[in-house]
Amino acid sequence: MSAQNPVFIPGPTNIPEEIRKACDIPTLDHRSPAFARMFKPAVAGIRRVLGMQQGEVIILPSTGTGGWEAAITNSLSSGDRILTARFGMFSHRWIDMCQRHGLDVQVIEAPWGMGIPLAEMEAALRADTSHSIKAVLATHNETATGVKSDIAGLRRALDAAGHPALLFVDGVSSIGSMPFDMAGWGVDIAVAGSQKGFMLPAGLAILGVSPKALRAMDSATLPRTFFDFRDMLKAYAAGGYPYTPAVGLIAGLAKSIEMLEDEGLSHVYARHHRLAEATRRAVAAWGMSPCAATPDLYSDTVTAVVVPNGCDGTELVQLAATKYGVAFGVGLGEVAGKVFRIGHLGMLSDVMLLSGLATAEMCMADLGWKVQLGSGVAAAQDYLRKSANAALAEAA
Ligand SMILES: *Cc1c(COP(=O)(O)O)cnc(C)c1O
């Protein structure tokens, strides 16, 4: 089929035409002033999107996973203790990476569908009177379950316990589509990737690093070369990179930030909230519910839909791909088969979302699930119509 449908996976996301064009540039000498002219506004824009006041932005040719690795290897040493919670596939993978790096990982298990258990985190921090925990790792938006955690609350827990640990936050599926306040939340390292909220192809890990995390660089002994912040910062000071940067993606990143700021970050976040709410109305009309246990945990970038007993979410995803050429996300790990995921982050409009909801319904009907065709679409239409005026008025 030659038609190009939008994707509804929670990353990579749909790429706006303007960004595709911005990435398509002739070869450029990355040691020339032309590169610095392109790079500096991108870095400045990232500071605004992350809500940074101090510290440094690091942009690596990599992906979000490489951003995690860069965060831990630049700040920690073998055997260092870290505290984190596991409540989905992405929090799990970060834990696995830390263990493979020889860190001593204290894991608080939480049911999938719940967020970071703040009270238990605080208790663990209070119990650590010798301050052996060097860093707390948090997944802001657990993409596997569609759960948003309270990072401000986690900062309050650290402060209430009087604990000096660094706070590292995975914002790969939230940053650029949901509010993120690095300075306000006292985040020491924030990790993003290019292919989600920034609407670019995969290929960049984007990090915000606080002054405190930068100081940790000097004593950290985990091995790193390609990801060494010290080399990056030395090269940045001269307007360049220690190696060949992903020049096209950086050109696209500058355009991405321009687009986000032209719309206005608060409007971008409001748009994602509306799209998420419309999705949740559809899910309720189908007689299903989000995997996220309570409304305060609902993610505005991805909804993991719990499918009825006897139904298989993966079958729906496969059918959508083969029959209709539309991509949804499968359930991962513990929730494999039990959910399918609708990504509603990055470039997405009301009209695009409705097409995805309609496709999901066709698949449900095809699979013999007990769902009335049009029921979820109607619920979403109703909400989108009613909330559109308010959104337009606010944008004006
Ligand atoms: C996508 C994602 C990652 C992994 O990022 P890659 O760019 O695929 O390496 C990590 N964490 C979260 C929360 C994600 O959504």
Polypeptide structure, described:
- This protein is of the alpha/beta class.
- The chain has two domains: 17-261, Aspartate Aminotransferase, domain 2 (3-Layer(aba) Sandwich), CATH 3.40.640; 264-395, Aspartate Aminotransferase, domain 1 (Alpha-Beta Complex), CATH 3.90.1150.10.
- The chain is 44% helix and 15% strand.
- It has 13 helices and 13 strands.
- A seven-stranded mixed beta sheet has the order 1-9-8-7-4-2-3, with helices on both faces.
- A hairpin with an 8-residue loop joins strand 12 (329-330) and strand 13.
- The chain is globular and about 60 Å long.
- The relative contact order is 0.16.
- Bound molecules: pyridoxal-5'-phosphate (PLP).
- Pyridoxal-5'-phosphate is lined by residues 11, 63-65, 90, 139, 141, 143, 170, 172-173, 193, 202.
Q: Which architecture of the largest domain per CATH?
A: 3-Layer(aba) Sandwich
Strand residue content: 5-15%
Kindly name the structural category: alpha/beta
Number of strands: 13
Provide the spatial order of strands within the biggest beta sheet: 1-9-8-7-4-2-3
Quick check: average pLDDT? Answer: 96
CATH superfamily of the largest domain: Type I PLP-dependent aspartate aminotransferase-like (Major domain)
* Low-pLDDT segments: none
End-to-end Cα distance: 39 Å
Taking the sheet with the most strands, its summary is: 7 strands, mixed
State the CATH class of the largest domain.
Alpha Beta
Number of helices: 13
**Order of helices and strands, N to C?**
HHEHEHEHEEEHEEEHHHHEEHEEHH
Give the % helix: 40-55%
GO molecular function: alanine-glyoxylate transaminase activity; L-serine-pyruvate transaminase activity
Family: Belongs to the class-V pyridoxal-phosphate-dependent aminotransferase family.
GO biological process, one term: glycine biosynthetic process, by transamination of glyoxylate
InterPro entries: Aminotrans_V_dom, Aminotrans_V_PyrdxlP_BS, AspGlyoxATase, PyrdxlP-dep_Trfase, PyrdxlP-dep_Trfase_major, PyrdxlP-dep_Trfase_small, SP_NH2Trfase/AEP_transaminase
